[in-house]
Amino acid sequence: MKILIVEDSSVYRALLTSHLQEWGFDFVVAKDGAQAWTLLQRQDCPKLVLLDWVLPEIDGVELCRRIRTAGAGNSYSYVILLTGKDGKTDLLEAMQAGADDYLVKPFDQMELKARLLVGKRIVSMHEELVSARESMRYAATHDSLTGLMNRGETLDFLGREFERARRSGKPLSVILADVDHFKQVNDTMGHLFGDVALKEVARRLRSKLRVYDGVGRYGGEEFLIILAECDLVSALIKADDLRASVSAKPVVSSRLSRRITVSMGVAVSTDHSISGDIGSMLNQADRGLYAAKLNGRDRAENVDDPSPTARNVDEVVQ
């Protein structure tokens, strides 16, 4: 863990660097508040700060306030304020500004080391908590098998993109993809191979999308792809590109190998004030998907006719 020393006194800089070198700490030095603030805004900024109160450019208390304002999210820097002030009012001002600890000059070197060890432990605990929170958030929003967004997160993503498209008036397209004959894959190749196939299909779909597109596991062997600012023609071209990517090479696991294909239904929302809601888009994509199944699979279809789908036909869905 790197420590930032912010000290304008050459005597105290030399003293602090000497102690930190002796104790094996990694550190970087700033001679004034402005230089320190530049370092603290970097993504890899030090998480433990030894900060003098009286500094050129930006003083220690103001720097504390900036650190706390900038670090209101996941990042946290532990600040030990060094000062010759020892009044209770000064201590209160420092803590209210965001300092975590307070050490009066001249300080005992062992007391300084103890404060640094406490700060290091607290920063480590904070990072572990943030990591645990992110792991829980990821588990709650992603499919454990494929690593794609799960159904709930996919629909949330679609909702956000739909509202953005509504505001901008630009088209939004969705592609509903279903792995062909997946029950047969599981029955003949085994469920472990089926899992490998789903993971590989997910990887191939994701690899062909733009960074701001979305793809999630919609359920079972179905995937939902969201394409921002994409009209119907572009969506059909993209769907065919994705379909070809999935079927281009066999999926291989151990000694087993099988070519996997997907059928796709495409829907687009352009006139948002008239065309309805997300449900109508998904229903249209669903009709396209089952038209693709009826028409031979391994293809993409767009269907405008709101007639009942073939979802109840067993031989189509297998």
How does this model look, in words?
- The protein has 318 residues and is of the alpha/beta class.
- The chain folds into 2 domains: 2-139, Response regulator (Rossmann fold), CATH 3.40.50.2300; 151-317, 2-Layer Sandwich (Alpha-Beta Plaits), CATH 3.30.70.
- It contains 12 helices and 12 strands.
- It has helices spanning 10-23, 33-40, 60-70, 88-97, 109-141, 151-168, 182-189, 191-207, 232-247, 272-275, 278-294, 314-317; strands spanning 2-6, 26-30, 48-52, 78-83, 101-104, 172-179, 214-219, 222-228, 251-253, 256-258, 262-269, 300-301.
- A 5-stranded parallel beta sheet has the order 2-1-3-4-5, sandwiched between helices.
- Strand 3 (48-52), helix 3 (60-70) and strand 4 (78-83) form a beta-alpha-beta unit.
- Helix 2 packs parallel to helix 3, helix 7 packs across helix 8 and helix 8 (191-207) crosses helix 9.
- The radius of gyration is 29 Å and the shape is elongated.
- The model is unreliable at 308-318 (pLDDT under 50).
